[in-house]
Amino acid sequence: xxxxxxxxxxxxxxxxxxxxxxxxxxxxxxxxYMKAYRDLRDRYPSFRDRSEIPDVAIEVxxxxxxxxxxxxxxxxxxxxxxxxxLGIDMDIAEGKGPIIHSPLRTQEQIxxxxxxxxxxxxxxIKTILQALRSEVGDKSTVLGFVGAPWTLxxxxxxxxxxxxxxxxxxxxxxxxxxxxxxxxxxxxxxxIYARYQIDSGAQVVQMFDSWAGQLSPQDYDTxxxxxxxxxxxxxxxxxxxxxxxxxxxGSAGVLERMGQSGADIVSVDWAVDMADxxxxxxxxxxxxxxxxxxxxxxxxxxxxxxxxxTVRKAGNWGHILNLxxxxxxxxxxxxxxxxxxxxxxxxxxxxKA
Length: 353
Prior knowledge:
Blueprint: H1 9-14, H2 35-43, H3 47-52, H4 54-68, E1 72-74, E2 90-93, E3 97-100, H5 107-112, H6 118-121, H7 123-136, E4 141-147, H8 149-158, H9 166-174, H10 176-200, E5 204-209, H11 217-223, H12 225-238, E6 244-248, H13 255-258, E7 265-267, H14 274-281, E8 286-291, H15 300-314, E9 319-323, H16 333-345
Parallel strand pairs: 1-4, 4-5, 5-6, 6-7, 7-8, 8-9
Antiparallel strand pairs: 2-3
Helix pairs in contact: 4-7, 7-10, 8-10, 9-10, 10-12, 15-16
């Protein structure tokens, strides 16, 4: 497997090899903007069914692969998927996201959490990832993904999505001992889950700390960064060659801190100019991103110009082209197709900085 011609393009770039064009995939590339997904959703209205019945999840994961040929095929799942394996009962409400039926607020609830045993709790993950690897072969890279400790803790404590994060911040600032215990348990479970995904066929794993951008930098250093590091360190101990990506939504104020997480690749959102992100992160950190998903509502020329601008600013090493966050549900499919076509026709030698 050492011959680079048999190694998928995205995996080569993620490992730091020089490639002729940046690999490209899209967050939320399997989802509501695709008619094929909406049709399947009508047959399987429950998100948990769509993501936990292997045949259905495999079909959804492969819909964008079959339509657009991205360089990355990501497991169709949710960051809260492993929580029931720890004893945290949850559901995913259509259009509203995760619901935790008994939010974690007490020491007793934290004490009752159990270690994650993915083979027992999440056997469908292995089935899905193995099938994706088998389907795409060396033509694309299979990505797994996990939630980060702070973001999973926020869901578990708040009980659902939040605009203010007041419940978990109340815990963080008035009873941090309980929260640190929860974050530690979640970090260890997430590390086990990431390893399980890699053992099941994931070649790259992205960790989503979607809500860490809601923390001030000093609180990020206390409640987010140490636990990101704890996950990445544990995964690297057993799987040192698997590239790891970190995404934080609204990350402009903590970008340098993301570079200290132990992730190989930092996913940059569109609030930061890619040239500035490169300067702030330093030459050794690889980057992913960072087009505004709204760009895909623009004309083809506009989309092309923005792709070229991002690629020029990212330079010719260590860049995975992506959006700064997930593709929006109303995005025209033909514009997504154009995004991928344009990206795959790029020649870095012809894209001068």
